[in-house]
Amino acid sequence: MSVAIHWFRRDLRIADNTALNAAVAAHDQVVPVFVLSKWQRDHDWCGAARQEFLCGCLASLAKNLEAKGGRLIIREGPADAALEKLIRETGATAIHFARDPDPYGRAMEARVATMVQRLGVTVHPHQDHALHERDEVLTGSGTPFRVFTPYARAWLKLDKPTHGRTFARLSTPPEIVSLALPTLATWGLTSDVKIIEPGEAAARKRLGRFLDGPVFDYGTLRDIPVAENTSRLSQDLRWGLLSIREIYARCTELAVRGNEAQRRSIGIWINELIWREFYFHVLWHTPEVLDHEFQPDCRALKWRDHWRPGKRSGGAEFQRWCAGQTGFPIVDAGMRQLAATGFMHNRVRMIVAMFLTKDLHIWWMHGESWFMRRLVDGEIASNNGGWQWSASTGTDAAPYFRIQNPWSQTKRFDPDGDYIRRWVPELRDVSGPRLCAPPGPGLPIAKGYPLPMVDHVAARDAALDMFRRE
Q: How many Å apart are CA 149 and CA 158, to the nearest integer?
């Protein structure tokens, strides 16, 4: 009787799971395992909200596997050591897993591959997290893309993998010992963040809701934070609760049946999926972007707080930004939404990131690190790409002279102040027009609310000078 291990990582679902389907199809018994790592417990980027979401996803996955006749095995330790022990216990002859797009995951894959080859076990990495991986989308000369638009054109021309069926049943050896499903207490954490519902079933409900209506207005409403017209699938893609193949197939089917306006709106949302894969592409080919600016000319910029996050905490201005106490209502609303829910609307992410880098002149890596600690959907590639875009240091970045004005951004995207008042209770009695313009010198917008930290015009001029000097 042949036994295989399926190593769950960022593919926490049953439906259309490439690696799991392959393991079930090729072997009599499958041991599904998730390995709790020291990195998840100790790394600054692994915040309580994301860990709580992960715990909920694992509990959901365990139930789904039991319904199919299997069991989710929980082990702890470095993945290569934990999997070696499991191989020896079960006599497994193969291990299947979905490839990880980030450098940390790929490094562990290499260690696991070395270990299983030493044991004479076959290793089967599968494509699952992206429609197109590292070397599938290249320039005509066979080099990686550095700019999004030509990458997107090439991406759209490629045939897409189809989504597959879900296996009917699987069998897991009953005698295998497993740790208990993790909780926040497993990592010594607590959280009062109201996270979105975890698990595959909840993710499928979100996908259905989005495709039943909001996707058709996405093109016009995606930048309005109070409209809540985005998909809210970012954490589901991050943890593999949904198949990217199924999402793309369902979107293209809708586009075929829709009218011109609906097709345009769906196309705009698909463009966001392409941005996600573009940032994977950048990280695959230039992993050093996690250590410094993508653009070499930007590596000598004289940022404030120009030290590595984790070595020292950011200064007082950075702490005010983190706490949503900047005196800029749209910035504070976004930061408080993040603190309360582990999520922030994408338009507001751009506003708060550009404020940190262009108004406060604080090194973007501090913001990148804070987002990774707080976001449930924290995706290393997209987060790095977004921060370097806002800081004008990355691939396809916003030109350094394009600096968003938080006041005009408020007037454009939250003119009535509904989003701001939802997250900043000190401003609940302030009218929309007053939230769209800076108060007079020394005059707070409302009692108990801080004065603006900086004068935007002066801060903008200082940012331009910083970039011009380099």
A: 15
Distance CA 306, CA 308 (A): 7
Q: Is residue 1 very low, low, confident or very high in pLDDT (cuts 50, 70, 90)? A: confident
User: Which token pair is 65?
Assistant: 């596997």
Helix (H, G, I), strand (E, B) or coil at 286: coil
Beta strands in 122-230 (DSSP E): 122-126
Decide: residue 82, CB within 10 A, 0-12 exposed, 13-18 middle, 19+ buried. Answer: buried
Q: Is the Cβ–Cβ distance between 116 and 87 less than 8 Å?
A: yes
Label residue 41 by pLDDT band (50, 70, 90). Answer: low
**Helix runs in 77-134, H state only:** 79-90, 103-119
What pLDDT shows up at residue 164? 82
> Over 80: is that where the pLDDT of 319 sits?
yes
Q: Residue 470's pLDDT is what?
A: 64
Inform me whether the pLDDT recorded for 189 exceeds 90.
Answer: no
| Contacts within 8 Å (CB) and 24+ apart, 18-21 | 18/98, 18/126, 18/127, 18/128, 18/164, 19/96, 19/97, 19/98, 19/124, 19/125, 19/126, 19/128, 20/96, 20/167, 21/164, 21/165, 21/166, 21/167
Contact 290, 384 (CB under 8 A): yes
For the record, the structure tokens of 397 come out as 């970045």
For residue 290, the 8-state DSSP code is G
Angle at 199 between CA 197 and CA 201, to 5 degrees: 95
How large is the average pLDDT for residues 253-269? 96
Please tell me the distance from the alpha carbon of residue 155 to that of residue 136, in angstroms, as a whole number.
9
Q: Which H or E element spans position 74?
A: strand 73-76
Q: Which ranges in 130-180 belong to alpha helices (H)?
A: 148-157
Predicted local confidence at residue 458, as pLDDT:
97
Please indicate whether residue 324 or residue 41 has the higher confidence score (pLDDT).
Answer: 324
What domains does the chain contain, in order, with CATH numbers? 3-129 (3.40.50.620), 130-163+200-285 (1.25.40.80), 296-469 (1.10.579.10)
